[in-house]
Each structure stands twice: as C-alpha cells, then as structure tokens.
Automatic annotation (TrEMBL):
Belongs to the MLP family. This is Bet v I/Major latex protein domain-containing protein. Residues 2-115 form the Bet v I/Major latex protein domain. InterPro entries: Bet_v_I/MLP, MLP-like, START-like_dom_sf. Pfam families: Bet_v_1. One of its GO terms (biological process) is defense response.
Length: 119
C-alpha cells in the first residue's frame, strides 16, 4: 500500500540565496565540482540546463554509486524555488513519483543562508 509522507530538511549554506538558486536553476553541471564526494556527474538527457520539462541524469554516491533521472516541473524566479520529479532510479518503488522542492533564502546573516528541501 502506498504511503504519503513529507520530509523537510533545512541547512545553512555558505553562499548567497542568489548563488544557491543559480546553481540549481541553470548550473547543475557544477555540482560534481562543488561536492565531488557525493555527486559524480550530471548530464542533460532532454532539453537544456534551464527549461521546465528538461530531463537530467544524476550519478551520485549513497553508500554505492546510484543513478537517478529527474525532470524539472516548476521554476519560480521570484521565490527562488525549483520543483523536480524523480522519473527513474535504482529503487523505483521508493523513488518513482518522488517530488523534490528546493528553495534558498537569506536569513539576515552576511555569511550564511538557508536552504530548504522538501521531499
């Protein structure tokens, strides 16, 4: 039987909300350089780096090497948020149909910003 659940994660990041958003909005190809211990590669399968409907293939490490294919469902430049849908992955029963929503916002500090990711 399917379960509906929500998981929210909030963490501080050492970049501005604009820089964080720009990476996820149009420069995801930089992710393997930003966190090489976790993300091994990302490539566009269909569309481009910026468009809603684009499909990307991510190779990451979560114990073992995994591959996930996602699509960009929504982009909101005003609120600096992006919503992804997971299309395929190693564990389709868990990942398929999963939706990830990420946004970055300033918390008033000159150095640290917040990142919200909800699954």
């Amino acid at each position: 039987m399917a379960q509906i659940a929500t998981l929210e994660v909030q963490t501080e990041i050492k970049s501005s909300a604009d820089q964080f958003y720009e990476i996820f909005r149009s420069k995801q190809y930089l992710m393997p350089k930003i966190c090489p211990e976790y993300i091994k590669g990302v490539q566009v399968v269909q569309g481009d780096w910026e468009a809603v409907g684009s499909i990307k293939l991510w190779t990451y490490v979560a114990g073992s090497s995994e591959i996930v294919k996602d699509t960009v469902e929504a982009i909101d430049d005003k609120t600096k948020s992006i919503t992804y849908n997971i299309l395929e992955g190693k564990n389709p029963d868990i990942l398929q149909g999963l939706q990830v929503h990420c946004s970055g916002y300033d918390n008033g500090s000159n150095r640290l910003r917040k990142m919200d990711c909800g699954i």
